[in-house]
Design goal:
The protein is of the alpha+beta class and 346 residues long. It folds into 2 domains: 91 residues; 234 residues, 2-Layer Sandwich (BirA Bifunctional Protein, domain 2). Helices cover 40% and strands 20% of the residues. Strand 3 and strand 4 form a beta hairpin. Helix 5 crosses helix 10. The chain binds phenylalanine. The site of phenylalanine has 11 residues, from strand 9 and strand 10.
């Protein structure tokens, strides 16, 4: 009897040592080894069957105590190992929220697009719809429908790259006028359209000229549209772009598709008209061309110039942006220098 006691006590002692393992798998092995169906505790239980009741009771209690102690030791070790695993993960995955944030490099809208968006929003607020036309345009829409027949000398000012004898890189956005008028009838008046886009002209590139640049065209056709409407619109536009104090000045000009035609100057925002280097000492800066739509353009697209009239204006986006932001070289817009572009982050 006491021999069995000793054996059980030794068993308990070794089990308690083996339980101090460092990983879950061997801990489970220890549990199975001692408490499993073929383990020593189970064996001892079987051995009890042949004992005297008195001895059986005493021995049974001892077996239960040993079994309970081993089970508790396994359970404790299990908790310890689990907590150690959590502590380990927390240590590995620390997040130092006091570190400075990573610099996220966000892009920004190109200054030319900002000007386009601004002017488009201005015209939309007055009920204009935005339209687009093809950059490879037909001679028909780029010139002919705008009262610029073949051999018209005004074509010389707008020389461009011909893709074939009838198609060229458009020299201005005015072709969208003809395309729009052709697709509408007098029942659909008023026509109020704004059209931004890229245009192309043979030019010697320098600080103020580029063979590719952007224009915004705006035009309206309705009954009784006059120079007064054009002037009011131009003044509102000039003040929207360059400040509430700006004045405008119209000078006679020529475009085959407008009559009368004007060049529009805005009073210099830098010197307020006194004369400075920006306005070349004149106090005025030319910003766009405009005029009342030529009767021939209306007739060719199916409108009766006796009943309806309209105005059109076309401006260079680069020029507006250069004036607005004091940019001295047009080429800055095209070379994607981040030192330049980052100045236009809003
Ligand atoms: N299309 C003309 C140009 O590019 C500008 C313009 C547009 C003039 C509309 C009058 C009316 O020079």
């Amino acid at each position: 009897m006491s021999e069995q006691h000793t054996l059980l006590e030794e068993l308990l002692a070794t089990a308690l040592v083996e339980v101090q393992t460092d990983d879950l798998k061997s801990l489970n092995d220890v549990r199975v080894k001692y408490l499993g169906k073929k383990g020593p505790i189970q064996e001892a239980m079987k051995a009890m069957k042949g004992m005297e009741p008195e001895a059986r009771k005493e021995f049974g209690q001892l077996v239960n105590t040993v079994k309970g102690q081993i089970a508790a030791a396994v359970e404790n070790r299990l908790l310890e190992l689990e907590q150690a695993a959590i502590a380990q993960r927390l240590a590995n995955e620390t997040l130092d929220i006091t570190l400075p944030a990573q610099n996220l490099h966000t892009g920004s809208i190109h200054p030319l697009q900002q000007v386009v968006d601004d002017i488009t929003a201005f015209f939309r607020s007055m009920g204009y719809e935005a339209a687009e036309g093809p950059e490879v345009e037909t001679d028909f829409y780029n010139f002919e429908m705008l009262n610029l027949p073949h051999d018209h000398p005004a074509r010389d000012m707008q020389d461009s790259f011909y893709v074939d004898p009838h198609r060229l890189l458009r020299t201005h956005t005015s072709g969208v006028q003809a395309r729009t008028f052709e697709s509408r009838t007098e029942a659909q008046l008023p026509i109020k359209v704004i059209c931004p886009g890229k245009v192309y002209r043979r030019d010697d590139d320098d600080a103020t000229h580029s063979h590719q640049f952007m224009q915004i065209e705006a035009f309206i056709v309705d009954e009784n549209i006059s120079m007064a409407n054009l002037k009011g619109t131009l003044q509102a536009l000039a003040r929207h772009l360059f400040g509430a104090d700006r004045e405008i000045r119209l000078r006679p000009s020529f475009f085959p598709f407008t009559e009368p035609s004007v060049e529009v100057d805005v009073s210099c925002a830098k010197c307020n008209g006194a004369g400075c280097n920006v306005c070349k000492q004149t106090g005025w800066i030319e910003i766009l061309g405009a005029g009342l739509i030529h009767p021939n353009v209306l007739t060719m697209t199916g409108f009766d110039p006796q009943k309806v009239s309209g105005f059109a204006l076309g401006m260079g986006v680069e020029r507006i942006a250069m004036l607005k932001y004091g940019i001295e070289d047009i080429r800055h817009f095209y070379v994607n220098d981040l030192r330049f572009l980052n100045q236009f982050k809003r």
